[in-house]
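Sequence, structure tokens reproduced for reference:
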Amino acid sequence: MDKDNEDVVKELKAVNERIEGILTEFQNSREEMNKEKQERELATKRPAELFAVPYKNQSYCRKQGENLIVVLRNIGEVDVEKDVHVKVSFKAYDPDGAPQVEKATTTGLKPKGEISVPFKCPSENCFDPDCEFYIEIDPEKVLKDNRDNYKVRGVCSEKDMKRNLVAAQFPNNSYFELDGNELKVKIENKGSGEAEPTKTVIGFRQDGVKEIVVDTKALEPGEEAIIVIDLTTIIIDGEALNKNKDFSLKIVTDARKNEEKKWEGNHIVYDSYQPEDVPF
């Protein structure tokens, strides 16, 4: 290869190296910009924060057998980076007793994520009449943002928590709500314990009787479930119900059949519907 060609090759090689250097510098700069952008976005997000979650009725008395269950939720906008401890004390029952402390594996808990931590309840003498307790989350202040919601007071008023499923009234003081031909029934757990999935029986009467059995999901204390029924699927004596026909209603919650094979339940209510007169 003559000298001129060698010089051209060297020059091209140098150009390629400069281009590669520019591309590498551009890529590094781009990555640095993305990193700074992510850090800025992270700085504007709410830090990870753990909150003790009550039932819908605002009770912290979550019992499973002999255990008190503390449910933690990350109410921040970023993942939790460390594990924390949870402390529960039953001061009213045992003022001088040492609180129970359990480690919660919260590392990596995402926003809105939850984790359950069990604690052993004291003897039944604690329920005389009420079993009062205090929950403290992250007593060592491992997480940066420590707020008042890290400490809460709870009371268990009953040794044996019981469900109490009832048909709840709507704002119109009726046990049902009608939207076109859609009939809605509201079931609420007004007890102190969780309710497992159960049955709700709804009976319709209009020159005949038609009963339907509806599965009702598990409900926490204070939680509600809405049952929706298409009236046109209710056939009585060969005719379908609709919003233009009057009918009577019977609702049986937590339903089960007795020895006579009839439906009975925790709560039975009656209501009726009469369509409004259509003006001429």
